[in-house]
Amino acid sequence: MRLFEGTEYDRIPQCERCEKPECDCKCSKLIHTKVPNQQTARVDVEKRKKGKIVTVIRGLNAVDNNLPAIHKMLKSGCGAGGTCDGDVLEIQGEQLERVRVLLTEAGFRIKK
């Protein structure tokens, strides 16, 4: 329930990109200030302590992207946990192919 719901001051929340009501918005949930196909993500697999394998995504600027939303999309798409530390996204396990597919679908270029 919104603060002024049902009064003359009621304002329906609107999307910042298309200015339509949020319930009718068709915009992507990943909000980019820079066009995704102009950005290149570097995806690598690293081995950590005790033999743990982690998929690491670098090259996406935190200023130009909503990194927590991208990270959430990657984690749910891979069915794994992970962490977002500054400009580096980490996904648990060897998820290289899944991450590549998900980032390509989101419009990013991928570099090995």
What does this structure look like?
- The structure is a single chain.
- This protein is an alpha+beta fold and 112 residues long.
- The protein has a domain at 36-111: Translation Initiation Factor Eif1.
- The chain contains two helices and five strands; from the N terminus they run ββαββαβ.
- Helix 1 (67-78) packs across helix 2.
- The longest helix is centred in the middle third of the chain and has 12 residues, at 67-78.
- The termini are far apart.
- 18% of the residues are buried.
| Helix percentage | 10-25%
Work out the radius of gyration: 18 Å
CATH fold label of the domain at 36-111: Translation Initiation Factor Eif1
Please tell me the overall pLDDT. Answer: 83
